[in-house]
Design goal:
mainly alpha, two-stranded antiparallel ribbon, about 525 residues, single chain, globular
Length: about 525
């Protein structure tokens, strides 16, 4: 019998052993998706040396992340319509196909195109894994599985550059993608063998119900064929692709106020208007209106969007600060960043003891309020300072964000039934990914603006960092880099403060929990 949860007997059928096998498969899928977002970075010199295309190599990262982001809402709706298993298996196969194609790419254009294919599969891995984890475990046990997934994600993302460098240096860069095949094959086998979702009848209202659970079934058990909003799905892809491309390339490939930027943003706004019209008319919209009409989900969407934005400060700018200002070696600089991967999952796993007492919203406010103070403290570090100072702040920041993110995700997943959980989960993950894209563009512009003002308009953060690496750092340049990163952290603190206000003013004091009390 399937284990009962707070929203009824809708969990996949699995014994203790089978569930452990499914969890292992989910962790493998999550690890692969996270690994491939960063593993290419240290292998770029070898890839460019083999295939050429230096002027467009940044699309190896952007193409993958754009495909992941824009596909999240589509996979969320598909998993609510057809079940988690077919979507996760289909996405895994697409991801592995993209990996194989990347390994045999013959030029840079082909490699970028195959990275997009890989990203389209990665979107299914990210969203469906999180949703299925909520299906497998009741509310009181979800922090443990989500903490495991967070640990895998953080470890894989941090280990990605090191693993990519080792494979590129001692084997061949193509092994960066080939290594996915055996790991993905194991995950696929575990899912096919051990994941058994209960049959569900199509409700005449919407969504699916567990077979034998009459709630929501039509008169006489009538069923109808699922309708897929293909127009909405294509518009989501087009709209997300255009706007995210404008954010990623703006200020890099062309100036922000140049014709390409204006054209892309204008096209994106027109597509947003078209998407609203299409989704209002669709019987089964890809992005239903309730993800923004319900206060709980709308508040978490905005709060996790702010989280994605503020995470850019440490992940992108802290390594530069550690090497350029503190004078640390790359490996040591990486350790300064990676310490938050130690405190984040521990804090997330322990968060249940807090939110069961004070609720999801208050726990998240405690976490993001603490994170705001930590981020505000960074600009006040002494110059040049010691390595332990930012390391301590990162350790504390990881603990604070563990209290913030996990209760919100679990709260949203617990506020909806099975037939809406995939869409709700994809919605919050999409907003977090979008926030990271906006943060990279916004904070990059802030850093470059500070550097230009301090150095008399000479260069940007990338060129300054390269000059520091090529010889003895100039004190004036080091101070300019420190001020630029301090400005970025101040902006990240403002984003954290915005998330706090959203939870305070928009989120309900107590999150609704499907057929069960929050505590």
């Amino acid at each position: 019998m399937p284990a009962a949860t707070e929203d009824g007997p809708a969990t996949p059928r699995a014994g203790a052993r089978g569930r452990r096998a499914v969890v292992a498969a989910l962790m493998l899928c999550m690890g692969l998706a996270a690994l491939d977002s960063t593993i290419v970075s240290t292998a770029v010199p070898q890839i460019v040396g083999d295939l050429g295309g230096f002027s467009v190599f940044s699309w190896l990262f952007s193409g993958y992340l754009l495909a992941v982001t824009v596909s999240l809402p589509v996979y969320g709706k598909l998993s609510d319509t057809f079940g988690r298993k077919p979507v996760l298996i289909g996405g895994s196969i697409l991801f592995l196909l993209g990996s194989l194609l990347c390994a045999v790419a013959w030029n840079m254009a082909a490699l970028i195109a195959f990275r997009v294919v890989q990203g389209l599969g990665g979107g299914a891995l990210q969203g469906t894994v999180q949703t299925l984890a909520a299906d497998l475990y009741p509310l009181e046990q979800r922090p443990k599985i989500q903490a495991k997934l967070s640990t895998v994600w953080a470890t894989s993302a941090v280990a990605g550059p090191a693993l990519g460098g080792v494979l590129a240096a001692y084997a061949d860069w193509r092994w960066i993608f080939l290594i996915n095949l055996p790991l993905g094959a194991v995950a696929l086998w575990l899912l096919i063998r051990h994941l058994h979702e209960p049959q569900r009848k199509r409700s005449q209202d919407h969504g699916y119900e567990h077979e034998g659970n009459g709630a929501g079934a039509g008169a006489g058990g009538a069923t109808d064929r699922p309708r897929i909003d293909w127009a909405g799905a294509l518009t989501v892809f087009a709209c997300g692709g255009v706007l995210l491309t404008a954010l990623v390339q703006g200020g890099v490939a062309w100036p922000w106020l140049s014709p390409p930027s204006i054209a892309l943003f204008g096209t994106g706004l027109a597509l947003i208007a078209a998407l609203v019209v299409i989704e209002r008319r669709a019987a089964e919209p890809i992005i239903p209106g309730w993800v923004w009409r319900r206060r709980t989900i709308a508040a978490v969407n905005l709060a996790l969007g702010a989280l994605g934005l503020l995470m850019v400060a440490p992940t992108v700018f802290l390594p530069t600060y550690a090497q350029s200002v503190l004078g640390l070696a790359p490996i040591t600089a990486g350790f300064v960043l990676s310490v938050w991967t130690l405190s984040w999952p521990v804090s997330a796993a322990l968060s249940q003891h807090v939110y069961r007492r004070i609720g999801f919203r208050n726990t998240a406010m405690l976490g993001i309020g603490t994170a705001t103070l930590i981020l505000f403290a960074f600009p006040f570090l002494p110059y040049p300072g010691e390595a332990w100072q930012p390391t301590l702040l990162m350790f504390l920041l990881g603990g604070a964000l563990g209290l913030f993110q996990l209760p919100l995700i679990i709260g949203v997943q617990s506020s909806v039934g099975w037939s809406e959980r995939g869409t709700a989960t994809a919605s919050v993950l999409f907003c977090r990914q979008t926030g990271q894209t906006i943060g990279a563009a916004l904070f990059g512009a802030i850093a470059n603006g500070v550097l230009a003002s301090r150095l008399g308009g000479a260069g940007d953060l990338d060129s300054v960092t390269k000059s520091l690496d090529s010889g003895t750092p100039d004190e004036h340049v080091r101070r300019a880099v420190a001020e630029a990163v301090h400005s970025v952290y101040f902006g990240a603190a403002c984003a954290a403060g915005l998330a706090f206000l959203v939870l305070l003013l928009v989120a309900p004091r107590r999150f609704p929990v499907k057929q069960g009390p929050e505590d």
